[in-house]
Automatic annotation (TrEMBL):
GO terms for biological process: centrosome cycle; spindle assembly. The lineage of its organism: Eukaryota, Metazoa, Chordata, Craniata, Vertebrata. One of its GO terms (molecular function) is microtubule minus-end binding. It comes from the Eukaryota. Keywords: Coiled coil. Residues 211-238 form a coiled coil. One of its GO terms (cellular component) is HAUS complex. Transmembrane segments: none annotated. This is HAUS augmin-like complex, subunit 4.
Length: 372
């Protein structure tokens, strides 16, 4: 059970929005926001309680202690391996540099001792490598078959003479120190190019501070990595907040579109209708203008005067015809008053007129033929 003081501390620690960033800093790997903590205060208290039992990576304290011990042991073994591996690589570099110098320059007679030294060291390294390859691994229960049927003792017989080996071992520390010193001076010149032309004593003096400078640069690099990691976490959180706000804006925009689409469409249709009405009115006015232009081009002053005279003549003829029509209508009315007897007389009169016209025509024709 949790004590009263611990509960009070957790409550005071988890209360208020200003403390939420501290809770988030204790769990940088969790995908949480301040809004999540403010909406779930009990969960925030749980996270604060977990900080007493786990670290920022989520490991328990006991497991973290075991992990630190295993890491220390691993680092110790790693340092031992790196020490032997570094020494081996340095010896190979010395042999390679000697081969290069010997290839590009003529070795004076007094350098035969140096050549013997490097040759002996190379043979010893090769024999040691072969023996190690022939030696079965300690991690396997079954013995591995030897390469080409060779035994380590057969390879050890290829070692140089004991006297030559002892002489090489006596000279090895000095040569190794000389080689490492040259490498350190080269590293110093890389860090400080202005020291390249200085004396060797000054370089050696400056070399004593090189380790501190390298360590300082390493710490700066680690600090920059940590800063980059924090900035990355901050960027992820800001990106999440940005995306959440963007989603809210998109939803709000969708709501505005759905709610006001018909209203906007109606206003747009009204404006389009007004536009088309105005355009139609403009087209009608243009048509009227074109009609007036056609009339003006068709009816010139001379044409209008001629049409006026024609109209006057037609009006006079129409007036005469109307008068004749009225006279005929009066006569017809007077004839209709006399009745059916007058109609028989009129028909007889019409028949006699036709006979007279026929006889006149026949007489005329007869007269024409007689004269011929």
């Amino acid at each position: 059970a949790m004590s009263c003081s611990e509960s009070t501390n957790i409550k005071s620690f988890a209360e208020g929005d200003i403390l939420h960033p501290q809770v988030l800093a204790l769990f940088p790997l969790c995908d949480l926001t301040e809004e999540d903590l403010s909406q779930n205060p009990q969960f925030c208290k749980l996270l604060v309680t977990l900080t007493k039992h786990v670290d920022s990576t989520g490991l328990t304290l006991s497991l973290k202690t075991e992990l630190e011990k295993a890491d220390q042991k691993l680092q110790s073994q790693r340092r031992n391996w790196l020490r032997s591996q570094g020494l081996f690589q340095t010896l190979k570099e010395m042999i390679q540099e000697h081969c290069v110098r010997r290839h590009y320059s003529t070795v004076p007679p007094d350098q035969n001792v140096v050549h013997t030294f490097y040759e002996t060291m190379e043979k010893c390294l090769l024999v040691a490598q072969c023996v190690r390859m022939l030696d079965p691994s300690n991690s396997t229960q079954k013995e591995q078959p030897n390469i080409l049927g060779l035994e380590p003792q057969q390879i050890l017989q290829l070692m140089p003479l004991e006297k030559v080996r002892q002489k090489m071992k006596q000279s090895l520390p000095h040569e190794l120190e000389k080689h490492l010193k040259n490498k350190c001076l080269s590293l110093l010149c890389y860090y400080h190019p202005e020291w390249e032309n200085k004396s060797e004593n000054l370089k050696c003096t400056k070399l004593s501070y090189l380790a501190k400078q390298v360590d300082k640069d390493k710490k700066n690099a680690e600090s920059l990595k940590e800063s980059c990691r924090e900035n990355k976490i901050l960027l992820q959180r800001q990106s999440q907040l940005y995306l959440s706000e963007l989603i809210k804006c998109i939803k709000l925009l969708q709501t505005l579109i759905l709610d006001h689409r018909l209203k906007i469409q109606t206003e747009l249709d009204k404006k389009k209708l007004d536009y088309f009405e105005g355009k139609c009115e403009l087209v009608l006015q243009k048509i009227k203008t074109e009609m007036v232009d056609i009339q003006l081009d068709t009816y010139t002053p001379d044409t209008i005067s001629a049409h006026r005279k024609i109209r006057e003549k037609l009006d006079s003829e129409l007036k005469c015809c109307q008068e004749e029509k009225q006279g005929a209508e009066v006569k017809l009315a007077s004839f209709e008053i006399l009745g059916k007897e007058f109609q028989a007389l009129a028909e007889e009169y019409g028949r006699l007129r036709q006979e007279i016209e026929m006889k006149n025509w026949a007489l005329k024709e007869f007269t024409q033929y007689s004269n011929k």
